[in-house]
Amino acid sequence: MTQPIAMIYDDQLPTLLVALHPDATTAVLSGHKILEFRKRFFAKPFQAFVYTTGRGIQFFMRCGAAYQGSPATIAKLGTLVQHSDFAATMRYLGPQKSGVAVPIQATYRLTSTVTLADLRAVAPQVAIPQTYTFLDQPQRAKLLTYLTRQSYDLHHQVDWRRRQPMVDTLFS
Predict the structure, then answer these.
(1) Is the whole-model pTM more than 0.70?
(2) Domains of the chain by range and CATH?
(3) d(C-alpha 114, C-alpha 117), whole Å
């Protein structure tokens, strides 16, 4: 059964446009990737339309407040909750003093990919951000309306309750 994103859209949460590489999109949609690592990122809970590099917007997701800590703490969190490679996360975060792990709470796969051409037909000035862009701004209202009308067919909820004790060991 399909329904529009508007049915699950929360107008009380900030709405972002973010980009992921194809391998990260595959991992998120399969449920293997439940944390998104960034050197810096939006810290509060949010919802986002996710643009897969070279393909288009393939899903919508909800995320909790970001965990912020030293690169070692963030890498350890990834190892504990999603079996990430500690060394690879440390290499990604590099010499930063801190890093961010964004917990993915739910994903909603769109029934059709929204391409960059589709986006530009609605909002010619749209650019895919390297970090993120807020879609819930007055100048992007037309684009947000278009995106919330897109339908989804697969939904995956991440069970963070069972992972919370692991998180608490690092962030309590």
Answers:
(1) yes
(2) 3-66+102-169 (3.10.590)
(3) 8
Residue 100 backbone phi and psi in degrees, to 5 = -135, 140
**Which is nearest to 20 in space by CA: 122, 102, 105?**
102
Q: How far apart are CA 116 and CA 54, in angstroms?
A: 9
How far, in Å, are 16, 49, 169 from residue 152 at the CA level? 18, 12, 36
Q: Cα(72)–Cα(101) distance, rounded to whole angstroms?
A: 12
Residues 40-80: tens digit of each pLDDT: 999 999 999 999 999 999 999 999 999 999 999 999 999 99
Distances in Å between the alpha carbon of 75 and those of 7, 19, 133? 35, 21, 26
